[in-house]
Amino acid sequence: MLNVIAVPMAPEAARAARDRPDALIAAPLPDDAEVRGDWVRAPGARGGAVIYVHGGGFAHTMPEAERVMAYRLSKATGRPALRVDYRLAPEHPYPAALEDVLAAWRGVLNEGVPAAEVVLAGESAGATLVLSALLEIQRTGGPRPGAAIAVSPITDFALTGASIAANDGKDVLSRAALGSISAQYLAGEPADRAPQSPLYGDPRGLPPLLIAVGADEVLLDDARRFAEAAGAAGVSVRLEEYAGMPHAFHLSEPGEVLLDRIGRWLADPVRVFTVSDPDAGPYALTDGPDGALWFTLVHQGAIGRRDADGRITVHSVGAKPTMIAQGPDGALWFSEYGTHRIGRIAVDGTTSSFVPPTADGGPYGIAAGPDGAIWFTLSAADRIGRITMDGDITEYAAPGAFPSAMAAGPDGALWFTLNQGNAIGRITMDGRTTAHPLPTEGAAPVGLAQGPDGALWFTEIGAGKIGRIAVDGTVTEYPLPDRQARPHAITSGPDGALWFTEWGRGEVGRITTDGRITAYDLPRADCEPHGIAAHDGALWCALETGALARIDVPR
Fold it and tell me: Going by fewer Cβ within 10 Å, which terminus of the chain is more open, N or C?
């Protein structure tokens, strides 16, 4: 699921972009801008840095106008901006400019700026250099920037993008001009190789990207194709297409919209990573014993693994793998709802499955117990199961209807939601069960997790509430601001709060142990967030439309 945003623009904005293409940079540098050589700092800019790489077809520079653009980037991002004065073609063809951008990157790091607080930003030729530099930084190892922005990049000097012909005559840039730029810059170097043509590189492991392009640009497909390739490689990519805009629109008055969106994108704690086709259905996820993030692909019949570099591995298993949990044996265990089995997958991808005694039981929730076994719910059979690491299965009658999610409690028992029994259940290691009715009728509890306060927390998908149950059975409920939010899964976060998905709103919610609730928007209201888990210091949730979302935890 490539995160593409169509940005509507008024007809007068399109006219302004064509009639006054330099409106933003033709104005004088504001008096309140602080310039240190080519460092430009807007008022209020503090830590971090923007490395700004200007456009100009690799052959031209306008230092004063570029400083104005650097100032505007500094103002939008709240960081000082460094304008890179790279060598120009034809006197200095490829790779001179790229070497200079990489030298600027190393120089900023040498000044003590943390890599994660550095943003690379470029326009046109500069955007190409930014993407080329990212590929080289990734290829050679070492730290990577926190994010990158590429406005109207050339990503394919072989000029194979369909929009080069389709938009020729609509754009201020032409196919003929691109041919001339390519010849001067490459000076005989191959046009279909990376890093000079970023489209031909390996984008795996790149930092979050914002790629912006005008919908009337000849380079529209250059931007689209690189964004698609990066998204397919597990990179968090936002592609913004500005309606009716030609090349260099960001330098005119409509560019204010882009600058504002850049600032808000950098400040957004949510990043989205494509992991499957939209119909594969990422559903639940968990931190793995190998440091990777593991997730179920409920409609694809597979288990996915995402490593620290964003590489995705997919393993076929039984039909409708649903919930997944880390087992006591260093493997991942999951429920196969469609085949009525319990599955196991080792970190090397080896799989096995086990059949509970009750046929067509509909296994759903799954959790490791304090007894070294895996416990699970059989939702369609109203039973609770226990499986040892040798595959021996025991079943117990549930104390209510449709047992769903399951979690180990702080009291040495397993707890579970009774979705159609409107209660929270508890089972001891010897099979004794208890049900605690909920105060709200039709609450339909689903998700369940142990909280940091010694209680169990759960979602009420039917009532639009978050619930808390103490081990003595005392229940407290907290209504959500939108009772139609349909909260689904819940987990304990690294910040001492509980985090949950709001399936009905396309949001992730957070509730403190004293009941204070906040929410974080996901990119689309219809992204169908389901499972949620803490991983690598952040919260991750599964979007059934084909992606995983990462939410930075406030510190």
Answer: C
pLDDT digits (tens, 9 = 90+) for 213-242: 999 999 999 999 999 999 988 899 999 999
pLDDT tens for 91-144 read 999 999 999 999 999 999 999 999 999 999 999 999 999 999 999 999 999 899
> What is the residue-wise DSSP string for 157-179?
TT---THHHHTTTTSSS-HHHHH
CB atoms within 10 A of CB 6: 11
Contact 270, 43 (CB under 8 A): no
Q: Which residues of 302-324 are buried (b: 16+ CB within 10 A; e: fewer)?
A: bbbbbbeebebebbebbebbbbb
Give yes or no: 530 in active site. Answer: yes
Residue 149 lies in a domain: yes
Q: Are residues 234 and 288 in the same domain?
A: no
Strand runs (DSSP E) across 255-320, as ranges?
270-274, 282-287, 293-297, 302-306, 312-316
Residue 213 sits in which domain range?
3-268
Single residue among 268, 301, 325 that ends a domain in this structure: 268
Q: What is the pLDDT of residues 62-99, one digit of tens each?
A: 999 999 999 999 999 999 999 999 999 999 999 999 99
- Is 240 marked as binding a ligand? no
**Residues 367, 253: one domain?**
no
Task: Quote the pLDDT of residue 20.
Answer: 58
| Residue 540: HSE in the Cβ half-sphere, 13 Å Cα cutoff | 23
Tell me, yes or no, whether 374 lies in a domain: yes
- Judge whether 66 is annotated as a binding position: no
Is there a contact between 294 and 285 (Cβ–Cβ < 8 Å)? yes
For residue 204, give the 3-state DSSP assignment: coil
Q: Are 526 and 505 in contact (CB under 8 A)?
A: no
460 carries a ligand binding annotation: no
DSSP 462-508: TTTEEEEE-TT--EEEEE-SSTTS-EEEEEE-TTSSEEEEETTTTEE
Q: Using CA atoms of 203, 208, 214, 216 in order, give the dihedral in degrees to the nearest 10.
A: 30
What sign does the dihedral 403-405-409-413 (CA atoms) show?
positive
pTM: 0.84
In a domain, 15, yes or no: yes
Same domain assignment for residues 344 and 232? no
Which of 54, 247, 436, 530 is an active site residue?
530
Contact 393, 385 (CB under 8 A): yes
User: Greatest CA separation found in the chain?
Assistant: 82
